[in-house]
Amino acid sequence: MNLLVKNIARIIFVGTAFISATTAMAESTWPEGEPINYVVPYPPGGTTDILGRNIAKLLGDSLGANIIVENKAGATGTIGSGYVARAKPDGYTMLGTSIGPQSIVPHFFHKLPYDPDKGFEPVILVGTIPHVLVVNANSPYKTLAQLIAAGKADPKALSYASGGAGTVLHMQGELLKLKTGISAIHIPYKGDTPAIQGVMGGQVTFMFAPIAAAFPQIQAGRLRALAVTSSERLGNLKDIPTMKEVGVSDFVVEQWQGIYVPAGTPKNIVMHLNRAINDILKTPKMIDLADTLKITLAGGTPEDLGNRQRNDFEQWGKLIAAAKIHLNN
């Protein structure tokens, strides 16, 4: 019996040593020669793309690797997300994405090319972005109260733009309708920039826009800001009240940016990436970029991103069910 116990112990020891050695070898040789593919599921030029390209450059320098940013846009981010979910889980494919494909869009489809929870390993929460409710600078609505009153008085008076059906910008319009009882027609555009142009051109009444995209137009006098979706007033828009201040409670909405790898990617590689990107987020270059894009940098553990994704999935799922939202509305 003692001999059997000793043999089992020896087998366990050898197996453990082999696993430890394999893990150490994987981390010491990764990445080795092969370029890393950083997928952005949106068109070039947007916040996710700009963040991705800057992080990829700094991460490549940190890892001593060539990181190629590839835009695989379409279907509200689901095409690029599906591509990464199907990729080999070896640390050579990454996904730089946002709240939409991971926590909102899955509620609208019975079948997606990926599972937002089981198809990926979270790496890191990059940061969060508040939004601002804007109208055309020549709009008759100078306050949110006036906008709401118009929406209640005439079901056909208002329309709102978004960067696409199923995006967080779309959801905020629906949340406003649900909380205030107004009517407003949703007009989806192919991206945030065309949506903002629609508001500036007077084709659409209002929209919730990312601060970075809307701020230059607010400064230039082309858009009028009525409220921000942050919990407190923003430093560069101190004169603009929060949604709570203008009477719409429980309306703190932030778009987040996160990085994932395919499910099954070795834990040591996930943590290697997490540590490297945490360091990158503290660099002067990323801090300056975050200020330009009006992003609050986050960082933290992979679990932080996973928890944020699941909490928002639950929150927006409740709204979608309560408001009976469909992507063709």
UniProtKB/TrEMBL annotation:
<dbReference type="Pfam" id="PF03401">
    <property type="entry name" value="TctC"/>
</dbReference>
<protein>
    <submittedName>
        <fullName>Tripartite-type tricarboxylate transporter receptor subunit TctC</fullName>
    </submittedName>
</protein>
<dbReference type="InterPro" id="IPR042100">
    <property type="entry name" value="Bug_dom1"/>
</dbReference>
<keyword id="KW-0732">Signal</keyword>
<comment type="similarity">
    <text>Belongs to the UPF0065 (bug) family.</text>
</comment>
<feature type="signal peptide">
    <location>
        <begin position="1"/>
        <end position="26"/>
    </location>
</feature>
<dbReference type="InterPro" id="IPR005064">
    <property type="entry name" value="BUG"/>
</dbReference>
<keyword id="KW-0675">Receptor</keyword>
